[in-house]
Design goal:
By secondary structure, the chain is an alpha/beta fold. It folds into 2 domains: 77 residues, no CATH class; 248 residues, TIM Barrel, CATH 3.20.20. The chain is built from 14 helices and 10 strands. An 8-stranded parallel β-barrel has the order 1-2-3-4-5-6-7-8, surrounded by 5 helices. Strand 3, helix 4 and strand 4 form a beta-alpha-beta unit. The chain starts with 22 loop residues before the first helix and ends in a 6-residue tail after the last helix.
């Protein structure tokens, strides 16, 4: 995997400044709680593929020191009809197993309207609530249903004495959910919203062509692009993570790379779904900052920290807390995507201070 990390960053910065106020506190305050999730969310529904994904997560984390992608174990599409409970038991075992080495494995349950939804939630919380990174709730119809789903998960935690909060992710796939997306994103307990492309297109009863579900067409059809922008904007306004939909042409890495870059750089998404192991590297690479962006972020933030976060100049351009916040997110994205950073930077900015969610 080529993460085009910045060369030479171990030179030219003052180590003594790293004991100063951390950017999260200096720039956002103690109440800053915006989650920082891995940029790739990989889905697996069959046990063998789940194990393969979890092992790959561990393998890729060795160099970075942390998981660079999440794994979502899929109950909705993975469970055989009539065997949903057994599937949930199997997923719970995997969550609690030694294969879950970094605590970045979540699960997708059935939709709130499905008769197995409550059993999915109860089983997972009861048996693996302490290890669940999150629960993905698909096909939320509107804000009220999303709120009920969040409450169901909360009540399961209380029932089974799970002290930690289990973050909730939701999948926006319907007309009404898109219309309600600002209200949905603002619900307490939500950590991320994803866009369900194919269900959204299908809901238009043939009015949107099938080409809008392709890697290129989904970025050109106005109704699809509008839905994506509405979701991304609502997430950023609410301080949660917008997650981009799948690219089904999993063998076409060029198309996937271009789609991921557009999702990140044009539509404001900070996370994207993967449905095949070959997509993981491509998504991480596309969402990673470029080398010069990371170089600039390191220099600007170190100078700002030396100046106690007062205005500074860099290459003839004025910077203050507004631009410092932007460059902090650039540096954080570099860390999330596993780009090489100076050991002192990682230790001071991430290892002792960074916490997901």
């Amino acid at each position: 995997m080529n993460l085009h990390g910045p060369p030479g960053l171990n030179e030219g910065f003052c180590v003594s400044t790293l004991t100063a106020i951390h950017p999260r506190h200096a720039l956002f305050g103690a109440q800053h709680t915006t989650p920082s999730l891995p940029v790739c969310d990989h889905y697996a529904g069959v046990e063998s593929r789940m194990l393969k994904a979890m092992n790959l997560q561990t393998e890729m984390a060795e160099e970075a020191g942390h998981a660079v992608f999440d794994v979502t174990l899929d109950l909705e599409d993975g469970a055989p009809v009539g065997g949903e409970h057994e599937h949930a038991l199997m997923v719970s075992e995997l969550l609690m197993s030694g294969a879950n080495t970094h605590g970045r494995v979540g699960a997708r349950v059935h939709a709130p309207s499905h008769p197995r939804f409550e059993d999915d939630v109860d089983t997972l919380i009861k048996l693996a609530g302490e290890k669940l990174a999150y629960l993905m709730v698909p096909k939320v119809a509107h804000a009220q249903e999303t709120q009920r789903a969040i409450e169901t998960i909360k009540q399961a935690r209380i029932k089974h004495n799970v002290g930690r909060k289990v973050p909730v992710h939701a999948l926006i796939e319907t007309h009404k959910a898109v219309q309600d997306v600002a209200d949905i994103a603002a619900l307490p307990g939500l950590e991320s919203l994803s866009f369900g492309l194919m269900d959204f297109v299908s809901e238009h009863r043939g009015a949107i062509p099938a080409s809008a579900m392709t890697a290129t067409g989904q970025f050109t059809h106005p109704l699809v692009v509008r839905a994506k922008l509405d979701i991304a904007a609502a997430c950023h306004a609410a301080g949660i993570v917008p997650s981009h939909c799948v690219v089904t042409e999993f063998k076409d890495t060029k198309a996937l790379s271009k789609a991921a870059e557009r999702a990140s750089r044009e539509l404001g998404y900070t996370r994207m779904w993967s449905i095949h192991p070959d997509q993981i590297d491509v998504i991480i690479e596309a969402f990673a900052p470029l080398t010069y962006e990371v170089d600039d972020a390191v220099e600007i933030l170190l100078a700002a920290q030396q100046a106690h976060w007062a205005p500074t100049s860099y290459r003839g351009q004025l910077h203050d807390r507004a631009s410092y916040r932007h460059y902090w997110y650039v540096l954080e994205r570099a860390w999330l995507t596993g780009q090489p950073l100076p050991a002192e930077i990682k230790h001071a900015f991430f290892e002792d201070h960074h916490a997901h969610g």
